[in-house]
Amino acid sequence: MPIRTPSRTTSGDSSPTDEHLQREIMSDTAADSELRIVADDEPLDTPVIAVDETLLHRNIDEMASLARSCGVSLRPHSKTHKSPRIARLQLEAGAAGLTCAKLGEAEVLVAEGGVRDILIAYPIVGELKIRRLLDLTNRAHITVAVDSLEAALALSRAFANSGRVLDVYIEVNTGQDRAGARAGQEAVDLAVDIARMPGLRLSGVMTHEGHAGFSGPDEISTVAQNAGQALVDTAERLRGLGVEVTQVSVGSTPSSWFTPRVKGITEMRPGTYVFHDNNAFRHGRIGPDRCAARVVATIVSRPAPDRAIIDAGSKALALDPSPSHPGHGYIVGHSDATIARLSEEHGVVLLPPDEQGFNVGDRVEIIPNHICPAVNLTDELVIVRDGEIVDRWPVAARGKVREGQFASRNAA
Ligand SMILES: Cc1ncc(COP(=O)(O)O)c(C=O)c1O
To answer: Does 270 sit in the ligand 1 pocket, CB within 6 Å?
Structure first.
């Protein structure tokens, strides 16, 4: 049976509790089974990531209009798709530029996607990377996140020596406790020093309020807004000291409906929204009907009535846990089945009594817990329109963690 793009939506303005949400998302199995995106008779080798084109466009357009309604610019994080094609779609929908975590990802988006404005939201440390960065700035406007004097000094020396200026954002820790100078005095002190360095232009402050997404549905708006306010306050203190900070940049999909509304925020950098994933179900706005990317897997063994084996293991689904659903992903149409264990090539699915389907040769669609690392494991995305495969797009910027990969790919 061909499976068509669903029209049901779970988005709204209220923030339901975890319990309410689990009921809403997990109860309607009959409707949920209609949410598969690839027609059963479509030939497809598995495991593979299929992307529903309509849902993809809808997610892209929705975030673009959310940014417009908040009066901020949109700089999507490309970590989710690593695809020059999707980067272009985001730009066409109004994005001001893209965000990358890795220099290698930026190199690919510039060369293959024609992207001309990129924030590398990650510290650039080491001489080889700085050389590549210098080279990349010949082809695109690049901004780099800094959170230490050491990294800033090395960049300053290299850019001043070459007679050029690099835009930098100070990365500010607003509660995630990953990288970043602590919001307030620590970030202000660092920014004041960096603002004086030759070869650098301090053009913004940024935070990744990813910790908001780990808070419950009742707390997320407060946690997100507090993070945004801490960043705005830091920018205001800098301005009070005569340091002109133009961009105040936040970014995280679960907090997208909250942080950019804080007065003084100028830019948002969500990434996961382009596909959405099982992690997102927790906060109630997003359900399976909004997840554009699915790992399509085949049942390759049915060794026991309560156990089926799929050909998607950790090499297809990645290993991140999710607070939204037990196991390693959400099997569309089978909300009571659990992907209980993964080895590299095997997914062990535990089935409730009388669960239909799961015969050897059947296909299932899985919404991964975290779509970004799953995409990083695949060479291509299969693009689906109304149940039929219409195209294949390379994940050209996958696995770009160090020097040499881009050069050797081009030479090949
Ligand atoms: C610095 C930074 N900005 C933005 C994002 C996008 O967040 P999300 O994946 O929740 O959309 C990330 C994600 O890891 C990030 O690390």
So the answer is: yes
- Give me the residue spans of the domains in the chain: 18-53+278-394, 57-274
Q: Is the CB of residue 76 below 6 angstroms from any atom belonging to ligand 1?
A: no
| Residue 123 Cβ < 6 Å to ligand 1 | no
Q: Is 252 in the pocket of ligand 1 (CB under 6 A)?
A: yes
Q: What local confidence, expressed as pLDDT, does residue 31 receive? A: 66
User: According to the 3-state scheme, what is the secondary structure of the chain?
Assistant: CCCCCCCCCCCCCCCCCHHHHHHHHHHCHHHHHCCCCCCCCCCCCCCEEEEEHHHHHHHHHHHHHHHHHHCCEECCECCCCCCHHHHHHHHHCCCCCEEECCHHHHHHHHHHHCCCEEEECCCCCCHHHHHHHHHHCCCCEEEEEECCHHHHHHHHHHHHHCCCCEEEEEEEECCCCCCCEECCHHHHHHHHHHHCCCCEEEEEEECCCHHHHHCCCCCHHHHHHHHHHHHHHHHHHHHHCCCCCCEEEECCCCCCCCHHHCCCCCEECCCHHHCCCHHHHHHCCCCHHHCCEEEEEEEEEEEECCEEEECCCHHHHCCCCCCCCCCCCEECCCCCCEEEEECCCCEEEECCCCCCCCCCCCEEEEECCCHHHHHCCCCEEEEEECCEEEEEEECCCCCCCCCCHHHHHHHC
pLDDT, the chain, mean:
91
Task: Please state the pTM of the whole predicted model.
Answer: 0.92
Atom of ligand 1 at shortest range from CA of 178: 16
**Ligand 1 atom 15 nearest Cα:** 208
User: What CATH code is assigned to 18-53+278-394?
Assistant: 2.40.37.20
318 lines ligand 1 (CB under 6 A): no
Residues of the chain with pLDDT under 70: 1-31, 404-412
- Which atom of ligand 1 is nearest the CA belonging to 251? 4
Ligand 1, residue 210: give the atom nearest the CA. Answer: 10
Topology of domain 57-274 in CATH is TIM Barrel (3.20.20)
Please work out whether the CB of residue 174 comes within 6 Å of at least one atom of ligand 1: no
CA–centroid distance, 253 to ligand 1, in Å, is 7
